[in-house]
Write a structure and sequence with these properties.
The protein has about 130 residues and is of the alpha+beta class. It is about 25% helix and about 30% strand. The protein starts with a strand and ends with a strand. The relative contact order is 0.19.
């Protein structure tokens, strides 16, 4: 089973090897989608957890016992078609090629099923046509 979660770490837990512990202690794979971690600051990780349902539940319970906030991601990227100028800047930063330009028309295509909601496209858009529904 897969679960996408956002982990928020308190300052004191920022040095904890969480992804290692998930793999070693719970047999849960953690694919890091986005990370914002720095010493002496609150850290955030967006991860996709993969494992047995019971192992996932145990891992999430363990993280919460370590004062790591766990929230389930249900966000999606939203593109405002009226604002988009189809410049293609977002396609250059999209790691999964969910955003592409149509070769014939040079119009932006968004393949939602490929999107991992890493949000790299949001600050890249010069007209702020990309956001999340969160």
């Amino acid at each position: 089973m897969k679960k996408r979660v956002t982990l928020t770490f308190p300052k004191r837990a920022i040095q904890m090897p969480v992804t290692y512990r998930l793999a070693k202690d719970f047999n849960v794979a953690a694919n890091i989608i986005r990370a914002q971690v720095a010493p002496n600051q609150i850290g955030k990780l967006v991860v996709e957890l993969l494992g047995d349902i019971d192992a996932l539940d145990a891992a999430i319970e363990w993280m919460r016992s370590q004062d790591i906030s766990v929230s389930f991601a249900s966000r999606e990227i939203v593109i405002d078609e009226d604002s988009c100028v189809h410049c293609g800047l977002c396609t250059g930063v999209c790691p999964t090629e969910a955003l592409t330009l149509e070769p014939q028309t040079f119009r932006l295509n968004f393949t939602r099923s490929r999107c991992i909601v890493c949000e790299q496209c949001i600050p890249t858009c010069p007209v702020e046509a990309i956001s999340t529904n969160f």
